[in-house]
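Z., the sequence and structure:
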Amino acid sequence: MLNLRDLTIKSFREGLLNKSFSTFEITKFFFDFAEEKNSELNAFLSLHRDQALEAASKIDVRLAEGDDPGVLAGVPLAIKDNILVEGLPATAASKILENYSAPYDAEVIAKLKKRGAIFIGKTNLDEFAMGSSTENSAFGVTRNPHDSERVAGGSSGGSAAAVAAHMAIGALGTDTGGSVREPAAFCGVVGLKPTYGAVSRFGAIAMASSLDQIGPIAKNAEDAATLFQAIAGIDPKDSTSVDADYHDLTADPDLERIRELKIGIPDEYFGEGLDPEVRGEMEKVIEDLKSLKINLKKISLPHTKYAVAVYYLIMPAEVSTNLARYDGLRYSPPPRSGRPSLLDLYLYNRSYGFGPETKRRILLGTFALSAGYYDAYYLKAQKARSLIKKDFDEAFREVDVILAPVTPTPAFKIGEKANDPLQMYLSDIFTIPANLAGLPAVSMPVRGREGKLPIGFQLMGKPWREKDILDIGRLYERL
């Protein structure tokens, strides 16, 4: 019987070219497994067997004709359900989009289709990507594959759980304040948040436009690099995207080059509130990096303490603007009951369609942008955001990469923080700064934790230097 646990993008390609399996056979195998496993985890909101098997058959024809369809051909991927795939549901885990199907492909999906990737289905998330546990989904919580009583993280919890449970070889998520890295850390897989602008956001349902980035979730750093290289690049449909040079991203790491890099250890990320177990594992990671003869240096990022407060003013303000378009009419069928006026119809649809956390953020953002409060809250938060970015700019004059925990604790129990929004928001305290500064950051699982809850460490790099952090991650994996 085929062991899905061992399949990476590289080994999948080898098996395909060696005729160990056909694309059709392996795709069917993945679906059979995913349908069984998903009943336990609720990682997928929808599975799309017919479309995937049709795409798989076309790849088999190309292989039979002697064509090499590429490194991602036939690779089964899971797609977060706020990224559009033409003809498939795009609910953003919200009742207000429950019946919406995407009319076109997101740019990242178009790129992956050209490379022959297979889409298993759309994964669960916190509603409109607002959360750190996937408990805010309108369609049920996603459970952690390592402990079904614990959360998978959020907001890309479904994507991380699908990869960790071997229901897909890789996945796409979105990261606004840690939503790729945090679930990757909780589920024991690799999650990359690219530099802001490295990947087109066209076709991703917007949450906070100055912070959102699409990123890959994978079993190892090499797979993350392969997926990222496939989706990166400038897109005329997204004016924030940039034409950066990522041609050598998947080349084998050069140990001598890596040893010339310097890694910064910020005091502010190792202070009060860090779980003792996480602290202990981070100290082991530091020793492992020293064993690779990489230079480490203590640094300071003094404005880190303001990151959560800044984020929870800027992000809700952008949420308030972006979600104003959802009235229950334009993106789904008309409501089932008539209302006496258009305003009453809007109020009814938005009250029914949005969940509690989404409403909370819309209200908070609308308040922060309202007359008399804009200067006191939103404008002040933007000024503080500039100081946080300045901290990183100054730090990167001394070091090339910054090491930090991903989360203060391992995965917490389902329901543990559900009634305490502030405690939930603090789960992202170490991931938010990279989004505010637009930096690339990767979550790597700490090695040697088989049989225990996963813990992740984070490597943040200079803009457009994803190769630095991914190469360090790949060398760490080889220890």
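Residues 374-395 form the longest helix (22 residues). The first strand starts at residue 44 and ends at 47.

Let me know what you think.
H.
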